Amino acid sequence: MVLNDSVADCFIWKENIDGNYTAADGYKWLLDKRITPNHHQSSWMWIWKLKTPEKIKFFIWCVCHQSIPTLSMLHKRNMSQSVCCSRCLLYEETIFHCLRDCSTSKKVWHGLGFMDINFFSNLNLQDWIRTNSTSPSMCLFLAGL
What is the pTM of this model? Predict the structure, then answer.
């Protein structure tokens, strides 16, 4: 679809008045987009600062971005017939269920010494991961993940 034959298509940098991109404009734009430390919900820097192997950091990043292929997600994409957890056969297989709430997962956590009711009470996945990844027992927690 052509809107106007007399005007050629071109790229325009909307952050500059004349529409031209310069490295200085790009740098200024990046500085303006920096996330302040108080906005930890949108900042994932805490993950990359963890003292753990990169593959665990990447896994945590995937978990926090809800990109682990659970049956719940696969079902929503018409790639699975059921959302039911294949380990316990009782509840919907979400990331939180797989990592913490499934009876099989709870056995692992209990075996690692995580028996405190507070460990299982946090309802926000990202907060649960962040709190436990930066706790004194972070090595055991990360091994459990």
Answer: 0.68
